[in-house]
Amino acid sequence: MLIDRFNRKITNLRISVTDRCNLNCFYCHKEGIFQRSENELTSDEIKEITTAFKELGIKKVKITGGEPLLRNDIVEIVQKIPKFDEVSMTTNGILLEKYAFDLKESGLSRVNISLDTLNGEKFKSLTGGDIEKVFSGLACAIDAGLTPIKLNMVIMKEINENEVRDMIKFIFKLNKNGINVILQLIELLKLPGLKKHYFDIGIIEREVAREANEVRIRSMQRRKQYYMDGGIIEFVRPVDNTEFCFNCNRIRVTADGKIKPCLLRNDNLVDIRGVKGKELRNRIMKAINLREPYFKGPCDV
Fold first, then answer.
1. Is this prediction's pTM over 0.90?
2. Domains in the chain, please, with CATH?
3. Is 158 in contact with 197 (CB distance < 8 Å)?
4. Quick one: which of 115, 221, 242, 269 has the fewest CB in 10 Å?
5. SS3 190
6. 100-133 in b/e burial notation, b at 16+ Cβ within 10 A?
7. Average pLDDT for consecutive 10-residue bins of the chain (301 residues)?
8. Alpha carbon distance 1, 8 (integer Å)
9. How many CA atoms lie within 13 A of 34 on its CB side?
10. Which residues, other chains included, contact 192 with Cβ-Cβ below 8 Å and sequence gap of 6+?
């Protein structure tokens, strides 16, 4: 098992397979990498890296981007990743109708789909994309069994904070035959130029808490899930949150093959491209030892 010097167990790997995207969301955190790489990891390199992490105790893998479905070999990538407790993917859903069934057959467990509004015009202004393609991809993902799907809704002040109720109703309708979709409400990171759009989602969480039948706390970042009659609402609150950081169990790999110990830092990357075997494992351990909570607060060590 991988444990960092702050006694945090690392069980989840996020691996970016491309920095490219077919949408242009102004608020995207780009997995913390804002300079596009032209030299993406090959499917064999992804297999080598994920296998090493599995041998060291990683339990779950999430394939990210950019937009992973822009890789022409995305199905091959999923096929080559070794068997974990879960292999999932975050996608904007635009190309999901094309790939959903092949991805499921190749070993993908489930997907997260980014959807910040149900309004087609607003979606286009926020992302430049066609919301109908997302709806089609969502339907195909449900039919293919890539569930439970998480709908990722980033909450933004004066943009969509008043649409949460509509989104809750939307997932309740999708869940009429059982819970296939979980709504994940995400706090906007205060990246440069975004502070004016920051909205304290604690306001929404308190409203949801009053209506929930049950609340569960996940081990990952102490996220709270509220169980309601029509579905599950999960809150992701990373901003200025020491509890979030001190319960982080993730490690990241960039699209060009660097381990990224923290989403919000780029001064401690560890290059693992082109290395194998013992040296690869040594560099993974080096990256683990570089991990530290970004927000420490009174718990500073």
1. yes
2. 10-299 (3.20.20.70)
3. yes
4. 242
5. coil
6. beebbebebbbbbbbbbbbeeeebeebbebebeb
7. 93 96 87 71 98 97 97 98 98 98 98 98 97 98 97 96 97 92 94 89 96 91 92 88 83 96 91 96 97 69 33
8. 10
9. 10
10. none
Amino acid making up residue 87: V
Reported as a single tens digit per residue, the pLDDT across 189-204 is: 887 788 999 999 999 9
Tens digit of pLDDT for each residue in 139-166? 999 999 999 999 999 999 999 999 999 9
Cα gap 292→301, rounded to integer Å: 9
Give burial (CB, 10 Å; 0-12/13-18/19+) of 152. Answer: buried
Examine residue 238 and say whether the peptide bond preceding it is cis (omega within 30 degrees of 0).
no
Backbone angles phi, psi at 215, to 5 degrees: -125, 135
DSSP H helices in the chain: 43-55, 74-80, 96-106, 120-127, 131-144, 164-174, 202-211, 242-246, 277-290
* 38 DSSP 8-state letter: S
Provide DSSP, 111-145: EEEE---S-HHHHHHHHSS-HHHHHHHHHHHHHHT
